[in-house]
Design brief:
3-stranded antiparallel β-sheet, 3 helices, single chain, alpha+beta, 41% helix
């Protein structure tokens, strides 16, 4: 299971938090984000680039005109499918709500510390 991820060297599947897949020119760029460990400032991530699959498609049957088009490669498609199964879009509504509440709590603490600092600065002016 998850053979394509393992071939890329991604073995710590339970630490995968999310991923992004985007197209940049003739490449698809897959970025896998791992859960941040305690004490780390930034989460660890891995980035993979893969050329897009090209094929010729007929655009006009009367004149037999063809055009080269690109599409996601089968390898990247397999990776995205495997990552979907790993991530399972875990962040449901309850998780999302919990994350927002944690962010609000953190912001309140930061604001309170700044207000305390400003009040202390005002006191030193007297």
């Amino acid at each position: 299971m998850y053979e394509t991820l393992k071939e890329l060297g991604v073995t710590d599947l339970d630490q995968i938090e999310r991923y992004t897949l985007r197209q940049e020119g003739d490449e698809d760029i897959l970025k896998i984000y791992f859960k941040r460990k305690k004490g780390e400032l930034f989460a660890h991530s891995m980035k993979f680039r893969h050329g897009r699959a090209k094929k010729m498609v007929q655009i006009d049957s009367g004149t037999h005109k063809y055009k080269e088009v690109s599409e996601i490669s089968p390898t990247m498609q397999k990776l995205a499918n495997e990552l979907d199964r790993v991530v399972q879009h875990e962040e449901n509504v309850a998780d999302f709500k919990k994350r927002i509440l944690n962010d609000i709590e953190h912001l309140e603490k930061v604001i309170q510390r700044k207000l305390d600092q400003l009040r202390a600065d005002i006191e030193t002016l007297d």
